[in-house]
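We store amino acids, tokens; thus:
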Amino acid sequence: MLHSRNEYFLWFVLFVGLFLPAVAPGVGNALTLALTAIGLMALIASPYRHEIMRQPAVWLPLVACLLLVVAFAITARTPQHILAVYILSPLLLVGPYAGLLTRLEADLSPQKIAWPALAGTAAAAIIAVYDITLGGLDRGGLSVNNPIHFADIALVLGFASMVGIFDRSKSVWPIFLLGPVLALVAVWCSASRGPFLAFIPMAMAGGACAAILLLPRRPAVATILSSLAAIGVCFAGAVSLKLGGRLTELVSFGEMTGSIAVVDASTAERLYMYRSAIGAFLASPIYGHGLVDFTAIAAQYAPSGPSFPPSGHLHSDIADFAVIGGLMGLIAYGLAIAAPVAGALAVRGPARGMAIYLATVTSVGYFSTALTNAMLGVLAQTLLFAVLLALIAVLGRSREFS
């Protein structure tokens, strides 16, 4: 009876962490935070707490946050400037979440992770299509979230759901190949260019990783090459035929460097932010300027010409971390992004392959989407990152696929 109860609660925990971020991020955030509070108590009482805390997926984010606290302390004018690190506090919750999963004696098979993620991606695709058809909205996902954040989350979940193909013992495994396709539908309907571009490195990295881990050498190479060719043809066709409206108004290298006119106001504003971030970083390259009002501070170093009012972030995690923490901030960001891969490489046993795949799409996904948008520091995305890290940390304890 206890095992059955734990199994049901495990499915609920995975549903909260991997389904709700796509369709109800506010509810998902609240429930995930509540679950991590329970997980903290479970972690403290767990005989495996030291083993959990030694996992790279757990302690690397802690080191990243500590580096930022030190950087903030150097520039702090009030205690508020140090306490501002709370915006990244979900990175501190990896251990408690892993503690909760361990307390439930979780046997994390690939499909236990994949089903909630695939359901979330499918729901996101349905919502996105509804929004731009029957909903009468300009962009898919606008009914539940910021369209860019919506697309970023759908993209990460779509590729994470493909971890289900690592369990070939169940005949339903091909359905998980739909994850990236459904994610692309959600991204396309959201008309978000950053996630659309991020789909390419995610497809390359995720496809190559899965092929190498699951196929013999020659079929793996053939699969990778054919997939790259297909992605290139589809992308080139979409751009040349101008399918998808604003999605295909892509910025060339010349535009990114400012040598020719930019496409639209949105692109111009992003370039303004990135150039401001470079100026702010060069003004304080070691420890940055702190988190409080950092976009307003960055605006002081903006290039001459048209200006834009400061927003909540600089539309790039690299730009954000460079301004708030300088070199220390960039190192902290690198540690956080590397944590999934480092955690997966520490996994031994039958779960190692799925852990490496999950880590690859998590790290590549968060890095590529964060090139044009904020990811770490936005609550829903940061909590999802913490959930994925916790899953990777616990996978080493999964002895077999159930």
